Amino acid sequence: KVHDLRAELTSEKKDPRHQRKKTAMKKVVANMTMGNDMSPLFQEVIACMGVPDLEVKKMVYLFLINYARARAEIANLAVNGFEDDVNDPNPLVRAMAIRTMGYIYVERVIESLIDPLRHCLRDRDPYVRKTAAMAVLKLSMFDRSLVEEEKFLDMLKDLLADSNPSVVANAVAALTEISERSPHIKLKLNMKIANKLITALNECNEWGQIYILESLMYVVPQDSSDAETIIERIMPRLQHGNSGVVLVAIKVIAYMMNYVAQVETLEPILRKLSPPLVTLLTSGPEVQYITLRNIQLLLQRWPTILHNQLRAFFCKYDDPIY
User: Fold this and answer.
1) In whole angstroms, how large is the CA radius of gyration of the chain?
2) CA-CA distance, 188 to 220, in Å (whole number)?
3) What is the phi/psi pair of residue 204, to 5°?
4) What is the per-residue pLDDT for 231?
5) DSSP H helical ranges for the chain
6) CA angle, 139 then 208 then 60, to 5°
7) CA–CA dist 88, 17 (Å, integer)
8) What are the beta bridge partners of residue 189?
9) pLDDT digits (tens, 9 = 90+) for 128-145
């Protein structure tokens, strides 16, 4: 089978639309999926990196991600192809190249990733910039000190002011995770950045909103008015259709309430928190369970938060045991 596929990949018959190579690559990927070892074809597959067809490139990159970590010689042979692709006029090709290089933890590939990654973080296309932001996170998993030495963290912080909300969300996600994984890198956001992030919320998809809301846990309000401003601006997220967005919004509001000085200001906030919590209890069993666990924590801090919603907590005969 490998012999037949090799013949198809190296065939010199006229193939202006690259259909023959596309079909052969589909067979290679199908065999990989079934657990058959296709690594003997790596030279032929790498030769397909030069095929100017997006579908073929995607399959070649899938092959490389699958085999390059285990066989460094495959990755080394692909470096020149990657270097061509990160300078391709098509932003999808540039982004795919950067993403794939970030997955391959082989020293030579990582070395050749640094300069293209720096350029891609400043790329004119937002899709390339947001992909490059996640590539910095991948690189930090391989070598955290390299990310610090090459000033990639500063470049990620610059992306927090990007005009595209998807880029902002990815930069926030990368910075948050790097901060959580590192014992000495601590993410700190001021009110100016917090306001920019909240502004980007409206234009982000639901997962981008979750990343941005999570990052607000790194904001330390300087006074009560800062905390009240953040609470007021993220209150609309409590009406969101995604339970993840609602729960993270409640988490951020609960955190910010610790900085609210006046008790009379807390009462209306607590009243607004109870309806979304009760609404979440009408969701599926997994969301119900997580909501109940969160309610337990909230009641320890604010015992009166649900005193008008007792009816929702009466036990029914068909309730699950939790």
Assistant:
1) 25
2) 8
3) -90, 155
4) 92
5) 2-10, 19-33, 42-47, 54-67, 72-85, 91-103, 107-120, 126-142, 144-149, 152-159, 165-181, 191-201, 206-215, 224-234, 243-257, 263-280, 285-301
6) 45
7) 19
8) 219
9) 999 999 999 998 888 888
Amino acid present at 229: T
The answer to whether residue 245 scores a pLDDT higher than 90 is yes
- End-to-end CA gap in the chain: 54
Count of CB atoms within 10 A of residue 232's CB? Answer: 13
Nearest CA-CA partner of 77 in 89, 94, 60, 90: 60
Distance CA 321, CA 319 (A): 6
Contact in structure between 113 and 101 (CB atoms under 8 Å):
yes
Per-residue confidence band for 8, with pLDDT thresholds at 50, 70 and 90: confident
Residue 145: how many other CB atoms lie within 10 Å: 8
Percent of the chain beyond pLDDT 70?
100
Instruction: Please indicate, yes or no, whether the overall pTM of this predicted structure exceeds 0.90.
Output: no
